[in-house]
Amino acid sequence: MEIKDYLIKTNSPEETIGFGTVLGEHLEPGSVVALTGDFGSGKTCLTQGIARGLNVPGHIYVTSPSFTLINEYPGRIPLFHIDLYRLENESEWEEIGIDEVLSGEGVVVIEWAEKVCHRLPREHLLILIDTISDNSRTFKLRGHGEKIIDLVNHALAKWKAKDN
Ligand SMILES: Nc1ncnc2c1ncn2[C@@H]1O[C@H](COP(=O)(O)OP(=O)(O)OP(=O)(O)O)[C@@H](O)[C@H]1O
Ligand SMILES: [Mg+2]
Description:
Elements: E1 5-10, H1 13-26, E2 32-36, H2 43-53, E3 70-73, E4 79-83, H3 90-96, H4 98-102, E5 107-111, E6 124-133, E7 136-144, H5 146-163
Parallel strand pairs: 2-5, 2-6, 4-5
Antiparallel strand pairs: 1-7, 3-4, 6-7
Helix pairs in contact: 1-2, 1-5
Bound molecules: adenosine-5'-triphosphate and magnesium ion (MG).
């Protein structure tokens, strides 16, 4: 299937959480979301929205996993939040068991995914985040695989309907 990019712009962290929520509502078991973007671009913020959309209980604060590299949250579908900033070598990838998580039934969100492009499953949603100004961010959505593209289309339709 042809790869298509969709561009979303948000003008506040709340709006990013709102978009993440809509996206999270549409994700399915096995969905993989790979995030790229500089420090403070909003990877964790978007993940917080995705967690909300997956019904991760509101009292659980979603924050970047630091020493463990991976956090698991309970939700409509379990959410695995991986932050690869501190990943030093590929053997750590094995130790943490990321391949098992990627082939499981949870939703997986990966920050600093550019470090492991070659290890991502064929089907995934890549989101390239750019900082435009203090409060503005763009999210370029690139779906790899028919199922995820379909799901992103549904999420975008809902997001656009909300905007109006
Ligand atoms: N439109 C926006 N969307 C998301 N975050 C925004 C936006 N505008 C401002 N911000 C701010 O940018 C910061 C985003 O931080 P966040 O931790 O989500 O980034 P990150 O990409 O995960 O960074 P890191 O690489 O350190 O993990 C927050 O302080 C947030 O308040
Ligand atoms: Mg982060």
